[in-house]
């Protein structure tokens, strides 16, 4: 007893040290974001609602789960009965001295039958093996289907979020969650659930069989149960904390690795490879550090468990041989008891693994369900389906601010009339692209309103509206597929677009010559984010993508900034032709007034406010006063050269 109490005291002391270590790692290394994700936080926030939701996602595959569980019961039952049969056979055919009475029990009859028909015993074992294989198959497929359903719902929910969601969240990390966390949840609902339910069934079955075989020996074995449970509780908790922390750090490492590998060219240009490698190694060190603590907790748990189990076995054997001597039990019964005790011990260890995996799965699922259930502020497909402009788009006292920023646009009022080119010019960071984003209804204004032919933009279906707009952004984004597929992404029904239409869009965008110069023409792969193309080529493909659906509205945000003077000129001519021959309304964003000669109306934006608007000629007249005002604001002496600044590069 004294030894036991000393042992438990030192174990508690050790556990306290490990817990403190975990806390220290957390405090030193993690931002509040990580701290929020610790075990208690996640458990507190994992509600019955989450579990019900997991059940709802898994519901379509319940047939497979039930079949798997059925096969598990069959195989578990077969393997549970075997030790009992073997024990009976040892007693009957092993010259047993203490067997005084004739055994007419059902188990003995079954044992005798199998002794006389060994092929039937082999058949029973084979049935158990087939049931095990079927169980693994059913539950594994259920797990894969569950992961697919969970991923699908998380992916579609993330893609349907409004822009403010993406401003607030780190996309790389969401990507990592989407791939890693779904696997963890899927693993816990399939593999660990399979192992856990099996361990639970076998564990309960073996304990019942132990009591049926010898109550006295069972009581002796059960004396160690509180120690085992205490050990599980202590070390299991530490292990859980480490596991959750590991998930957080690994998500961060993945995000960083993908980002740095994607931008390897930029890293090379700024010679930041080694710094990135060092950062990666530093983060990897944190993983090792947490893993060491986890391994220490795991090792201690297994070691103490082994110690307790062997002590219990020694007691069973000592006490069991005493019971044989006094004729309380037989050799066969002691053998059966030992086999059941081994099974119960193995189950207990499996149950602890299962508990850890399920806790891991619950932690991962609560984060995934948060993503899945996030409600977008703006519904993608609700509202009036407006797809053209009959009069004008009107910005009326519009103010707008991004998350964590102040006054991006401040009380702006201007018009974008139908069939005209409206240019928005102004210095960098003045809010020009934000106007384009509001026009696309990527965001809604904080105050004021934007109307299209008198209809408030907030009542317009964003998807239908955006489909009617062709957009070329400042940094054209291409996807990792062929030139053809990149252009077709702009079409509502790509399968209905003919090769002639594709070539027409490429010709209008002045892209056809370079596309034809490639060996595979439109089927040339553009590489990750178009890395196999030049900036100007990417921009021209983006212009072709914007033109493929023959939009009624075009938004060009510095759309020709990466083009040479000739390509720029040719595209401007194309737009002029389109304007003349088609019903086209254009919002064009540029830094310099000089590039906006074709504009019907020019709006000058500075620091989120409109500081002047009028025709190109009118704006040319007032531009030097704008530059002068700006120079005065910044305390720069005005020179003749500066008044030409807006016309530079014309
Ligand atoms: N997603 C965002 N979240 C927070 N702030 C943003 C976001 N996008 C832009 N901003 C900020 O809003 C302001 C206006 O940005 P905007 O992109 O509209 O400027 P711009 O006039 O188009 O600049 P540029 O000519 O350099 O492209 C800037 O101060 C910018 O830092």
Helix and strand arrangement:
Blueprint: H1 2-29, H2 32-36, H3 39-45, H4 48-58, H5 62-93, H6 106-116, H7 118-159, H8 163-168, H9 171-213, H10 215-222, H11 225-262, H12 264-269, H13 273-325, H14 331-373, E1 392-400, E2 409-417, E3 421-425, H15 432-439, E4 447-452, E5 455-456, H16 462-467, E6 469-472, H17 483-488, H18 499-508, H19 512-517, H20 535-547, E7 553-557, H21 565-581, E8 585-590, E9 601-606, E10 609-614, H22 616-634, H23 640-643
Parallel strand pairs: 3-8, 3-9, 6-7, 7-8
Antiparallel strand pairs: 1-2, 1-4, 4-5, 9-10
Residues 167, 402, 405, 408, 426, 428-434, 474, 591 line the site of adenosine-5'-triphosphate.
- What structural class do the secondary elements suggest? alpha/beta
Mean pLDDT: 79
C-alpha end-to-end distance: 94 Å
Q: Which runs of at least 5 residues are low in confidence (pLDDT < 50)?
A: 25-44, 645-650
Largest sheet: 6 strands, mixed
Rounded to the nearest angstrom, the radius of gyration is: 36 Å
Ligands = adenosine-5'-triphosphate
| Spatial strand sequence of the major β-sheet | 6-7-8-3-9-10
Instruction: Characterize the overall form.
Output: elongated
**What's the count of strands?**
10
Q: Counting H and I runs of at least 4 residues, what is the number of helices?
A: 23
């Amino acid at each position: 007893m004294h030894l036991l109490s000393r042992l438990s005291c030192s174990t508690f002391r050790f556990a306290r040290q490990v817990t403190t270590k975990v806390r220290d790692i957390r405090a030193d290394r993690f931002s509040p974001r990580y701290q929020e994700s610790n075990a208690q936080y996640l458990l507190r926030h994992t509600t019955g609602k989450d579990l019900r939701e997991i059940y709802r996602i898994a519901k379509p595959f319940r047939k497979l789960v039930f079949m798997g569980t059925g096969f598990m019961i069959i195989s578990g039952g077969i393997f549970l009965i075997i030790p009992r049969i073997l024990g009976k056979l040892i007693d009957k055919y092993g010259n047993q001295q203490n067997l005084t009475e004739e055994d007419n029990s059902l188990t003995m009859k079954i044992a005798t039958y199998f002794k006389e028909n060994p092929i039937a015993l082999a058949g029973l074992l084979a049935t158990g093996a087939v049931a095990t294989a079927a169980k693994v198959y059913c539950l594994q497929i259920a797990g894969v289907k569950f992961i697919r359903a969970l991923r699908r719902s998380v992916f579609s929910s993330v893609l349907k979020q409004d822009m403010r969601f993406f401003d607030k969240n780190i996309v790389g990390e969401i990507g990592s969650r989407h791939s890693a966390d779904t696997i963890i949840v899927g693993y816990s609902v399939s593999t660990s659930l399979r192992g856990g339910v099996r361990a639970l069934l076998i564990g309960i079955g073996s304990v019942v069989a132990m009591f049926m075989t010898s109550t006295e020996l069972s009581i002796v074995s059960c004396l160690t149960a509180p120690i085992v449970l205490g050990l599980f509780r202590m070390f299991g908790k530490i292990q859980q904390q480490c596991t959750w922390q590991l998930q957080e750090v690994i998500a961060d490492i993945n995000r960083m690795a993908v980002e740095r590998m994607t931008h390897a060219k930029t890293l090379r240009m700024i010679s930041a490879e080694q710094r990135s490698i060092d950062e990666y190694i530093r983060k990897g060190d944190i993983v090792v550090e947490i893993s060491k603590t986890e391994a220490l907790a795991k090792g201690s748990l297994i070691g103490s468990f082994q110690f307790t189990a062997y002590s219990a076995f020694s007691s069973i054997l000592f006490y069991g041989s005493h019971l044989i001597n006094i004729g309380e039990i037989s050799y066969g019964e002691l053998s059966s008891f030992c086999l059941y005790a081994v099974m119960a011990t193995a189950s207990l260890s499996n149950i602890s693994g299962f508990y850890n995996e399920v806790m891991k799965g619950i932690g991962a699922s609560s984060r995934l369900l948060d993503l899945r259930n996030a409600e977008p502020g703006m519904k993608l497909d609700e509202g009036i389906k407006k797809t053209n402009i009959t009069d004008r788009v009107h910005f009326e006292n519009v103010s707008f601010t991004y998350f964590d920023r102040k006054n991006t646009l401040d009380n702006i009022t201007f018009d974008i009339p139908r069939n005209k080119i409206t240019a928005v010019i102004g210095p960098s960071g003045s809010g020009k692209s934000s106007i384009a984003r509001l026009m696309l209804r990527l965001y809604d204004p904080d105050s004021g309103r934007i109307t299209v032919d008198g209809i408030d933009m907030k009542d317009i279906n964003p998807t239908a509206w955006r489909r009617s707009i062709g957009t070329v952004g400042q940094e054209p984004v291409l996807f990792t597929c062929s030139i053809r597929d990149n252009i077709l992404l702009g079409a509502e029904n790509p399968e209905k677009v003919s090769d002639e239409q594709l070539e027409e869009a490429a010709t209008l965008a002045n892209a056809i010559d370079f596309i034809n110069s490639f060996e595979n023409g439109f089927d040339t792969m553009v590489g990750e984010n178009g890395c196999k193309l030049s900036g100007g080529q990417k921009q021209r493909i983006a212009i072709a993508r914007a033109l493929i659906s023959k939009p009624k509205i075009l938004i060009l945000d510095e759309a020709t900034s990466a083009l040479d003077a000739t390509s720029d000129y040719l595209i401007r001519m194309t737009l002029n032709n389109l304007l003349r021959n088609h019903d086209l309304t254009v919002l064009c964003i540029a830094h310099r007034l000089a590039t906006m000669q074709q504009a019907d109306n020019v709006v000058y934006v500075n620091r989120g406010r409109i500081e002047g608007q009028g025709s190109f000629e009118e704006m040319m007249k007032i531009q030097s006063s704008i530059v002068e005002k700006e120079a005065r604001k910044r305390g720069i002496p005005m020179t003749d050269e500066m008044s030409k600044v807006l016309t530079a590069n014309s």
